[in-house]
Sequence to fold (330 residues):
Amino acid sequence: MTTYKESGVDIAAGEEAVKKIKNDVKKTFNKNVLLDIGGFGGAFNFPVNEYKKPILVSSVDGVGTKLKIAFLSNVHDTIGQCLVNHCTNDILVLGAKPLFFLDYFATDQLKTDVFQSVVKGLTKACIENDCALIGGETAEMPGFYKKDEYDISGTVVGVLDKKNLLSNRQVQKGDILIGLESTGLHTNGYSLARNVLLNKFKIDDYIEDLGCTVAESLLAIHKSYLQPLLPIINNENLHALSHVTGGGIIANTLRVIDKKNEIFIDWDSWERPPIFKLIQDIGNVPEYDMRESMNLGIGMIMIVDSNNLSFFENHLNSVNQSYKIIGNIK
Fold:
């Protein structure tokens, strides 16, 4: 006789894991969450009275091969934060704030402590972004993933009033590009970073130039820009936002401007964090490749009316958001 458990799927362990994360997940709930986790779906009471013409905005993403760093270092509580923050930034580009989040976690064999650690990261970021974690899927898939590895993805749903849809605003010649500083690689460029750094260093090596270990630098949490930008997101002089992810500064910013416009970047206008210099120097990585694969220290770009630059600078200073003027629209 062969059982499902002997084949690699432990139903009881999965149910026990869900029980252990319930308290953390419930910390993200608000008055609009209608169901507990563990059902067939999540239910959310949409706050219709808070909007005149509401638009729902959604995004789904993962964290790429940053997961490999988590596996090697056995640190799993930052990955969930990176995932939620990445998705939040993506809908923020359209002017939306998150309502709720759902995750997908798949592994070869469920290890409850690892799963709990990942979920703690998810819930921490959901609380910080005022977003409810209303459901998810946990899958054991023996033979599909390598031992002790997993994959994770997430979906966020947010809202804004139709009149405030950022993609309807017009980027104009002369607009200024304000670069908001990143915390590191965020969730892009890890295949290159791993290929370069892990061929020279061990994951727990302390690097003097970084002031931390390789793992600590590469696991730096993808920053959410929701809180610093939410107070001014509906200002009409903010013409566009660009979340700098895969493709780098130029490719992502081209996604939010008209084809008739061009982007000028002063690549010397900010100091790149040491991790990027380390990767480029050790790997002899061409400059164009660095620019196309990594954020280089700029995680979000605001495109603003030049006549109102001081307003946005004053706001960013007031919320302690580091920034640099990095270019303009031509």
In short: DSSP finds eleven helices and eleven strands in the chain. The first strand starts at residue 54 and ends at 62. Residues 112-128 form the longest helix (17 residues).
